[in-house]
Amino acid sequence: MPAGAPVIGVFDSGVGGLTVLAALRRRLPAARLLYAADSAYAPYGERDRDYVLERSRRLASFLLGQGAQMLVVACNTATALAIAELRGGWPDVPFVGIEPAIKPALAARRAGDGPVGVLATPGTLASDKFRSLLARQRGGDEVLLQPCPGLAEAIETHGPQGAEPLALLRRFCVALQRAGCTRVVLGCTHYPLLAGAIREALAPREVELLDPADAVAAQALRLAQDLPARGDAGLQAWSNGDPRLLQRVAQACGLALHEVLPLPEPAAQSPSRTRAVAAQPGLR
User: Fold this and answer.
1) Helix (H) or strand (E) run with residue 122 in it
2) Is 213 exposed, middle or buried (0-12, 13-18, 19+ CB in 10 A)?
3) Is residue 270 part of a domain?
4) Catalytic member of 148, 173, 188, 253
5) Is residue 188 flagged as an active site residue?
6) What pLDDT is stored for residue 109 in this prediction?
7) Residues 237, 198 share a domain
8) Cα separation of 226 and 57, whole Å?
9) How many distinct structural domains can be found in the chain?
10) Which is nearest to 210 in space by CA: 115, 274, 278, 117?
């Protein structure tokens, strides 16, 4: 992209969205990326719709107030439960969501393959958006849905290499291993952080893991072409959780977070007020 690029805001319930942020950085190396990690209110995947919608509105308001021209919802649960309302509230702002890669997983399936496994949060699997996606794509193919309660929270608390998330993951992979899954859809942005452990849990079969982060970044790149240049290349992150964990996970994702600012409790601004703030030139 040319010098002076659009400003893109990204939010997630915690560190998982860094996997999407890394894909965005690869696709848009000159963009200014703003990342908000809502770790103090995680996990979203085991909360009700009103909770997720309220948090998503506050984070969208905060990032727009920081100068974001586009928002990437780097959370499957927030996409499923909140993105329609966010788009309705801020119709002038491009939103990019994320959803489990069911379609490419089924397209790659061949006769004799085991079922396509889906690891996801309970909130994502129970959402109307996911059920509609599954109904459109499933056809006569077999899909094995595996809810993973507590896994994203364990990653937030103990880090991707912690004993608790690894133990939970091994338990959740048992059904997929027994069913002979050779393709597994990662339905939470936290789960790519455990890619090596997932492959180990499903051994000795070779398993293809489907992570939609690059598809999200490709869509953001397409939409960014229509935005005026406003920022300079860079990366700024905020977190209301442990900044050291965010920095460690960012480094593992190939991102350099030199500073993580405390994420203030964003005010519940009205969309109209936030649009007026976001329209002002420059970044705060």
Assistant:
1) helix 122-126
2) buried
3) yes
4) 188
5) yes
6) 85
7) no
8) 24
9) 2
10) 117
